[in-house]
Amino acid sequence: MSSRSLPLPFTTAWPWVAFVALIFLANYGARATLSPLLVALETDMHINHSQATSLLMLQGFGFSVALGLSGFLMSSVRPAHIAVFSLVAAGMSLLFMPLVNTLLQGQVLFLIFGLMAGLYFPAGMATLSSLVFPQDLGKAVGIHELAPNTGFIIMPLLMQLALHYTDWRGAFSFVGLGMISIGLSFLLFGRGGQQCTQVASFAGSARVLRDSRTWLFAILLTICLVGEFTIYSVMQLYLVSEQGFSAEKANLILSLSRAITPLAVVGAGFAADRYNPARVLGLCLLLHGVALGMMNLSHIYLALGGVFAQAFCIAFSFPALFKIMGDCIKVNDQPLLLSFTMPLAGLVATGFVPWLLGLCGEYASFGLGFIVLGGGSILSILALIPLQRVYTKTETKSR
Questions:
Q1: By the 8 A CB rule, do 21 and 14 touch?
Q2: On the chain, which terminus has fewer CB atoms closer than 10 Å, C or N?
Q3: What are the residues facing 8 on neighbouring strands?
Q4: pLDDT tens for residues 116-138?
């Protein structure tokens, strides 16, 4: 398949879609590696919850800065090349993890890792979009979103296994080698992402910034990323410190709670293409807020039910979210939209909120933080009301 033959129907392009998803799996899985190692890291480095989650905050800060740069780099560098560079450079930074002996050293290295890993997402989405026709984008995003959900299953198990043979530093080095191998393989055999985007103009940037839909999408994206990454990032600490599980059992629960999410996200991709995606997303956000509230209950089985339901609801939300973006925002404006919204959402969801939850866990409880986030998830449904008008007009015309 040459780049000239793209885009293609999903039934033909799916192997290359899956290859892009593999890159995302390596990228997201690496960023999720710290979470199942937090207890081991705290014990080894003699630090508390807020200090440990400061590593997540700095990783998130670097990630957000790089996200902002990536969308503009695509005007002069092919998206596929940015995606490969991001994976290889991030993997190389993890090879230096065995040299970390102090909290400050860890903070610097996680900041560098975040900077490298953050270059991926806009470039990855551009590569993905180049492979399929617009009417099949929901399905492609569904396959792409298998990556974080699969990573959430396998990383806790892999890291728990790695701790039997090495420490948390060696576990990161292992992940880094995998990232480098996958990145170089895509450079040789991957497809898509060969066309640079238009140079971001001041007028184009101003137009996107003035569009109220940009900020509505930013709110929804932030809430969804909080549900996907933030909750996962502190789950081991929550299960160990507040539910009384051992670190090993906490990682097993963390993995099992994400076991159904790959099926959920594939089904969500088809649902986003077939049904009104704004209604699908609204229902997901409502149930997600309820599930977060359940996680604060003292009854262990109800709390664990909330853990499992939370993971399912947020996995189902992403294909609908990006389908809404594709339907409401012009194709040429989408890279700019992601360049403006992803850094903000990433900084909040992968850095600031995990650190705040660490403070909650240190001085109050993780459950209190979950209740606040659940309320935010339900309130964010209001942001869907203006976006719903696109589908209301379509439904009216179809009648």
A1: no
A2: C
A3: 132
A4: 999 998 889 889 988 998 888 87
